[in-house]
Structure formats: C-alpha cells, structure tokens
Amino acid sequence: MPIHFTALATETVRRLQAGGADANHMAPERHIAQGSGNPCRHCLSMIPEGAPMLVLAHRPFPVMQPYAECGPIFLCAEDCHQGGGADLPAMLASPDYIIRGYGQDDRIVYGTGAVVPTDRLIAEAKARLDDPRIAYLHVRSARNNCYQCRIDRA
C-alpha cells in the first residue's frame, strides 16, 4: 500500500507566518533556530541553524473533542515549500517516533500506537493503514509527544 507523508497546509502556514493566531489564540513566537533539532512541519525539513523560525501551538484536528491534543511545533518563519510524499521526510532524524492511528471520527484507534524505530516507520505505517478502522496516522516525537506530521494512504 502506498503512503503519503502529509505536511501542514500552505494556507495555514502562510497565515501563521503573517502573525495569525495559533491554536491558543496567540501570535506565533519568533526565534532563531539553534542547533539542528528544529523540524518545520510545512517543508518537512530541519530549519537551518541561525534561520528565523516560529514556535506556536498547533492542534492537528478539524474540531475540538477530547482526543484533539494541542502542543508546540516549529515552522520556518519565511516562506518554504510544502513537503510531503512517499519518502521519509528529512526532518524525521531521531532514532524513533510514536505512530498512532486515528479513525474517521478523528479519535485514537486504541492498540495502534507504538514507539517505532525510524528505519521501520514506513513499514509500520503501511501495516497500520491496512486496518480499515484507521483513516490516518500521526507521527509524534517519542521523547516529547510533539506532532511531527500525518501519514495518509496515497
């Protein structure tokens, strides 16, 4: 089964880059990227050290409900091209990640979450998306549970 790593929508990112309110109704914070651990959820690449970046609250769900987690993410402060596709994004550079399945109702499908080594991420995503109960997956940091990107059926 082909899969697709899905980045945040360009329209959403451009609004945030222009100072629009985040999920907590606040303007994104502007910072300078330090080190190599600042993944942009739009271009799906690491923000280069010394480049301007945004830190903001993001809720990757269409409506509020008990499973609609909100947390911090990074974005390039300047325009970047939307990433995504079948290949593992460059920003997924940690040794492992949490993947978790969600149903059409945007709620966790229990029993589908796991910490997965990065080199097994694509295979594990395909296996989970074989389950008809799962509409999509989230990739999250295994250390801090921060949202990274979404995986959909291609």
Automatic annotation (TrEMBL):
Name this polypeptide is given: DUF1203 domain-containing protein
**Organism's domain of life?**
Bacteria
Q: Which organism is it from?
A: Gemmobacter nanjingensis
